[in-house]
Amino acid sequence: MEPSGRGSAKAGAMKYAGILRIGYKLLVNDRAKFSALLVGITFSVFLMMQMTAMFAGILNRAYSTVTNIGAPMWIIDPSVNTPTIVIPLPDYLLDAVRSMDEVEYAVPIFIGSAQVRLADGTYQGVSVIGLDDTSLFGRPALEQGAIEDIYAENAFIMVHDAEFSKLGNPRIGTSFELNDHRGTIVGIAKVLVGGLTGVPTLYTTYRRAIEYIPTTRFTVSYILLKPRSRAAEAAIEQQVARLGYVALTKEAFNQRIADFYIYQTGVGTSILLMTVISFLVGLSISGQTFYTFILENLDKFAALKAIGAKSRELVYMILFMALFTAMTGYGLGIALVTLLISVTRTYLPNYAAIITFWNLGLAFGMVLLIAGFSSYLGIRKVLRIEPYDIFRG
To answer: What global pTM score does this model have?
Structure first.
């Protein structure tokens, strides 16, 4: 014999399943209103996801130098906000960092820009990264060629990314001219993330980079280092700060870059504004449509009350209807923006938008707010209806 507690719980579950099934049928049977609700939420999710995906893609590209080089810690000038804005460091700073007990190794890196003259006489801007001659720390993985060839005369390695075609789809052995110096492609590399600036990237040795590209008195763009342990990071940061410079972990440098784009450029403000507008569009359309749906079905809710449905059961029913519509619209919106990004990347490889857990969670939270607001409007009206209202004139 089934225990009374378990039996009552089972009966309660069946009762709620029945009332939710009624709500589902009420919702989907009114196809016009249901479609309008779905369109409003789907469009809102699509816009929110598209805006935040674009911003996430921009930040991902902005991190590209830090990500691709992969150094655990960076030493930068206090005025630097992004890796592309280089303020050279004095040579003595490299010696000082190498002398710190907490540092396992430290190497210089050069990051600069130049104009390349191609074989057909056209010019193209490039980003040049000069790797430490001894260790080649930060070197990319090669698709073609051997990394040792970077030591050959006039040798450069070309990154195979979305900007590859801007240098005429070069092959190993392709020559170009850089500031009256001859350059030769000795390898084709791949990187984890493409750059944000829209120019091709060339790797070479540190000494060749500072020889080919005009520089200031100081030539070290950044110092890359590896601490002996995670606990040593704080001590390194303090010692470097006393020298007047900033030591950042890879994560901290990425956060500094993100803060720059969010707070010091118009990108963050524009994305935030468009996201809020998208949310308000979905909120207004869904709230108004759901409220109209409740008004048109008040007689049915009153009838349910008349046959014994409790207010709590009707609240659950409305919450279920709003949540079911919101989640369906959320799924459709995610599918739509995923399709758009996939198709766009097929034709525009440098399109930066990406979908992350962060923007998925943000859109999900906003959809829940839309569902909550819509439910609130409906619940207020339904709780005020009385069973005898269905018998009025």
So the answer is: 0.79
